[in-house]
Design goal:
The protein has about 325 residues and is mainly alpha-helical. The protein has four domains: about 50 residues, no CATH class; about 100 residues, no CATH class; about 80 residues, no CATH class; about 45 residues. Strands 5-6-7 form a three-stranded antiparallel β-sheet, with no helix packed on it. The protein starts with a helix and ends in a 5-residue tail after the last helix.
Length: about 325
Amino acid sequence: MAMAELIKNTVTPAGLTKILKGHASEISFVDPVNGATFYDGPCLLYLLWDRVDPSLSINVENLREDIEKTRLHQFSNNVDDLLSHIEDKYQRILDMNKSCESIVRYTMNALLSGPDKEFNRYMRAMKGDIDAGTGQHANISYGELVAASRNKYQNMVAQGEYGKVDPRETQMIALATEVQQLRGQLASANTTSKAPGGNYARPVDRSNDTPGLDRTILPGTVIEKWRIVQHGDGTACVICDGKQYWKCSHHVDKAGRWSFMYVRHKEEDHEAAVAKFKKKKPKTEDDANAHATQTSNAKLVVGDKLKEVLCSRFMVGDKDATDICAEILNQGKD
């Protein structure tokens, strides 16, 4: 009993709790007279010995390495559990009459490894003073660092602020997702508007499927296979989805994959069809420049509006907002 009392009076209450963890009921007994709880001295000494393990001084480097590599995700981002883990390892080093000169740096790095922005902002301000060697926290001790960070964490948890997702971040993720989807739609539209080899084709209206035609899309194009396969003697038109198509030998693939194609005009009307198509394009360089200017102005209007939204609603910096707009609208690219 004297040995047990000596150990109890030597360690802190928290230390005694750690020693007895999982074994208190096995080595304790109750005084039937006064109801006080006592611990078996030799058993308590054994648990202490097993906990501290002073004979294995070679483990000091392992303990230091363990502290250095400790990160919050290993404890489900629970700061209290992380600090308890580091405290335990550090105390074992001290019990071996050794030291860990980088304990403050190791602990700070571990505390800054979590996802909570508010907690990280608080810790970075403290780290800034330490790195600069000036300021309120320039010479903070390990114990003060542990106490300050634990108090900050516990207060945030009590107020329901720790681990809370920033709504602006959620909105930015949603915005990025929408932009990515828009890019995919634009890329798909560009692909279907022009086939490889300079062969332009309209998207096929499949509202009325026509039986007997191979509707397989040729690899790398938007052209259906039936359009390059001769039907009958090639003089009659082909009806597809209620529309007439005629064989025209002027539509030749530059890659040599086909020498004719069924199109919406007869072969003798090819030149007239080409001329009609060209009328839809800008006739002169001035018209082309005007069209380009109009497109550019439209992009500027959209870009200004998008930048305003990013800066006002999502609190994005001016330069970052400009870069985001330029990336979305592909400004400066042909």
